[in-house]
Amino acid sequence: MEILQLDFYTQAILSLAALIGLTSFLMLGQGRLLRLVFVFALQGLLLASATGLAAYTLDNEHLYISAALTLALKVFFIPWLIRRHVLRMNMHRDVEALNNKTIVMLGGASLMIFSYYVLLPVISNTTTLMLNALAVSLSVVLLGMLLMISHRQAIAHVVGFMSIENGLFFAAIVSTSGMPMVVELGIAFDVLVAAVLFGIFFMHISKSIDTLDVDMLNRLNEVD
Amino acid sequence: MIPAYLLLFVPFVGIIYFALVGHKARVGRINTWFNVATLLMSLWLAVNVLYSGTILSGSRFFIIDSFNVYLIVLTAFVGLTTSICSAPYMRHERELGKLTDKRLKLYYSMYQGFMLAMYLVLTTNNMGIMWVSMEGATLATVLLVSLYRTPESIEAAWKYFILCGVGIAQALFGTILLYYAAIQSGDAETALLWSVLFENAAQLNPEILEIAFVFMLVGYGTKIGLVPLHNWLPDAHSEGPTPMSAVLSGLLLNDALYAVVRNKMLVDGSTQSHIAGYLMMGFGLLSFLVAAVFLHRQKDIKRLFSYSSIEHMGLMTFAFGIGTPFSTFAALLHMTVHSLTKSAIFVTVGHAAQIAGTQSIEKIRGLINTQPKVGWGLLIGTLAIAGFPPFGVFTSEFLVLLATMHSYPWLTPLLLLGIGLACAGLFRNVQPMVYGARPAGQQPVQANLWPVMIHLALVLWMGLAIPGFLANWFSQATVLISGSAPL
């Protein structure tokens, strides 16, 4: 099917999906923490607009609530919280030297292809929209993991963790127009608590090992 | 349904109460009373289910059937006995100056928070809420793992948080796929209810459910501690306060396995194939064997028994994976006896570590001379967990072996090898700790070992003769899970 033959909603969601995928790649190659947090907030904004658009098109009130929740949590609260920690620990000038940037990027690209491959059977009986939306959200999840593997800063790990949550949320919005309200509230609550706990951990880690470089967390080993 | 609501309400009150006054002197005993109350509720619930079968709440938000009700009683029971032991243990730690008032408040409050999350996982009928409360259990316990604020404990807690968080995110993706499959044919509001899904399982798209199950197994499997997703488990168990290790090992792992089995029931109904079972068997067997080997290399007493937990969870996953009525019965029995034995061992181990002042296996010596109760407790517990007759673990492992011989005879040697390896791994470490020469100046500590004795006595009882009502219970659950009766 030609892309121009699709209705406006489908086209818009597909572009947003592409942009969300792109932000994941941007995070992957980002060594500066503040920019990383900024791109993360951008991803949240794209997610919130996709939700808002879905709410408007499907005329679904509870999606409006999800959109508002996403906007509040993922665009404002969590980025603000992480940014505050970065500034407080005086890490905004540090640039993390990422090893093997090229390989990580290529790895990311192959993860995206892999997501399409995994989800092929799901898609065989639905629309193009579903194919792209589910595959992009799975790849956002996998790219979030790759981000956590390739970065060494605890803060980057938290951003990766939260971006995994973004990918899951996008899957829920597009494929099923949102989970039941009570579940969605529960998930939002978990994310909120997790964000606060991460903040507490930053303080404990930096107090105990004087840095947030998780490579320094190496006391517990199988082999002595 | 009233007992189910009360069951959730009591720990909820507990969270708030202990957050306010958790540092007072007698608070350990009050914590015990809270757990007594929930145990009574769970027994009331069990009696209800026994007489009237499966109970669905009015809004179908909660489901109590023969499968989860016995896990609820088990959870309440282990929660109670661990809280009895935790009172003197935490007092001792407070006297040593390892803890402040604030952290005691956190400890008691989150103890109840963890119990609440566990009850919610078990009682809810909504697969989404099951995920939310499973994640809630991680959030409640993560600060308890780092309660002592040593660099090691912070590292362990961080690992636990990140690995379990990322792992369980996969389970959410699986749940979303499940929901996607369900709304193709059903009403969006009720599509995530397990009871509805189970009735209509045959109409769900099998291809989507297969993919969904892979994600769920990886997700909840991280929580079960299946190899290769087990890395967080020995660290979190060894660095946290001992009562926490007991409930993590005895309850959290069980409940994660419970979530996997619930999902397997849906997938089996949809695909009419054995794919979910094969996946569980593979992961389970791998965990079982790898953990048995790792038992030989441990230097920390709590890590030793954490690997033993991985080994047993692997065996249960394997047995549920075989999926015949016989193996399901064995897995249910093994869940029970393992929980009871392992929480008893962890409590004993905690006291042993307090006696020696360290968790290093090489430095713990002569327990049976210093404090015979602790020494004997550890020895008998280890005998039980290693699968010696006449303890219940022997019965259930024997049943798993029989079921394997029946369905997949060529896997039996691997199981026997694993059991032998694990037994050797445990005893080469435990024997010198119990019998070795007593270091000079080693003093007994204040300990309440009654709960340990009760646990071990129950395990012994289940090994000698499974009480009729319990066997009946297991049979009902087996019928529910595998479709027919075991005998």
What does this structure look like?
The complex is a heterodimer of chains A (224) and B (487). Chain A has helices spanning 8-28, 33-58, 61-88, 101-123, 128-150, 154-176, 181-209. Chain A is mainly alpha-helical. Chain A starts with 7 loop residues before the first helix and ends in a 15-residue tail after the last helix. Chain B is mainly alpha-helical and 487 residues long. Helix content of chain B is 77%, strand content 1%. Chain B has 19 helices and two strands. Chain B has helices spanning 2-21, 27-52, 66-95, 101-123, 127-145, 151-183, 194-199, 206-224, 232-239, 242-271, 275-294, 301-322, 325-356, 367-370, 372-385, 392-407, 412-435, 450-464, 468-482, and strands spanning 55-56, 63-64. Chain B has a two-stranded antiparallel ribbon with strand order 1-2. In chain B, a hairpin with a 6-residue loop joins strand 1 (55-56) and strand 2. In chain B, helix 15 runs antiparallel to helix 17. The longest helix of chain B has 33 residues, at 151-183. The model of chain B has no long low-confidence stretch (mean pLDDT 90).
End-to-end span of chain B in angstroms?
Answer: 32 Å
Number of strands of chain A: 0
Radius of gyration computed on alpha carbons of chain B: 21 Å
Beta-strand content estimate of chain B: under 5%
- Helix-strand makeup class of chain A: mainly alpha
Mean pLDDT of chain A: 86
The protein's oligomeric status is heterodimer
**What is the ordering of alpha helices and beta strands of chain A?**
HHHHHHH
What is the molecular shape of chain A? globular
The number of E-state strands of chain B comes to: 2
Largest sheet of chain A: none
Beta-strand fraction estimate of chain A: under 5%
How many angstroms separate the termini of chain A?
59 Å
